[in-house]
Design brief:
- By secondary structure, the protein is mainly alpha-helical.
- The chain has a domain of 147 residues.
- The protein has 12 helices and 3 strands, in the order H-H-H-H-H-E-E-E-H-H-H-H-H-H-H.
- Helix 3 packs across helix 10 and helix 6 packs across helix 7.
- The chain is globular, with a radius of gyration of 19 Å.
- The relative contact order is 0.13.
- It binds zinc ion.
- The site of zinc ion (ZN) has 4 residues, from helix 6 and helix 7.
- The site of zinc ion has 4 residues, from helix 6 and helix 7.
């Protein structure tokens, strides 16, 4: 399209910083297209799409939950992206989340369904356990290790996430909580150990789809 080409040519002449959108999705896109290639992101950007087919896919895993209903809905209480109803055997996922966020939310709720309800006093610990399992299952350790150190710097430090953290979320296909939990876990785990855990989770997903939910998770 001629108009687009003309715009791009014009924008080449402007200083990069002046053309950078200051926030939001446009900023993340800009980082991926321009900024990231300049500061060590090119390797992660190159391998992430090539490895995507290897990754655990919660949408495929729904098959293993034959007695459960998963519904994507616009109506959830404020502050909730997903909910798991053990009595109704139903999972609700909030509509309109970006794909990387939704992948994390659905994986989280499927893990609740898989593990079952816990007594009231154990709910906080269960929530932390599910967040960690979600991270181990979803974050590809090879892509994570290819990110430049600054790409997950704030997630590791536990402070507010930066725009580059959001770009990392997009590349890894996970939400911010999952990235932060994973970064904390990876401080104590070697690259080969992380690959073994990730492989085990992927294979368990395949097995469960073949054999139903009879097998219980022992990650
Ligand atoms: Zn939860």
């Amino acid at each position: 399209m001629t108009a687009t080409l003309a715009n791009e040519n014009a924008s080449q002449a402007a200083p990069l910083a002046a053309r950078a959108p200051s926030r939001g999705a446009a900023r993340v896109d800009w980082l991926r297209r321009v900024g990231t290639a300049q500061n060590g992101w090119s390797r992660a950007m190159e391998i992430a799409p090539r490895r995507r087919h290897l990754a655990y896919d919660p949408w495929e895993d729904i098959e293993a939950f034959a007695e459960w209903e998963v519904s994507v809905t616009g109506r959830l209480p404020d502050g909730y992206l997903g909910l798991c109803g053990f009595g109704a055997r139903k999972i609700w996922i909030k509509a309109g989340q970006p794909e990387w966020q939704m992948r994390s939310t659905l994986t989280h709720e499927l893990l609740h369904a898989e593990r079952g309800p816990v007594p009231a006093g154990q709910q906080k610990a269960e929530e932390r356990a599910v967040e960690l399992l979600t991270a181990k299952r979803l974050v590809d350790p090879v892509v994570y290790d290819a990110l430049p150190a600054g790409g997950v710097g704030r997630a590791i430090a536990g402070t507010a996430l930066s725009t580059s953290d959001l770009a990392a979320c997009r590349l890894l296909g996970v939400d911010k909580t999952t990235l932060r939990v994973y970064a904390g876990w990876r401080r104590r785990v070697t690259a080969s150990g992380a690959v073994r855990v990730w492989d085990r989770h992927r294979m368990m997903g395949d097995e469960r789809r073949r054999g139903g939910l009879g097998r219980h998770e022992r990650p």
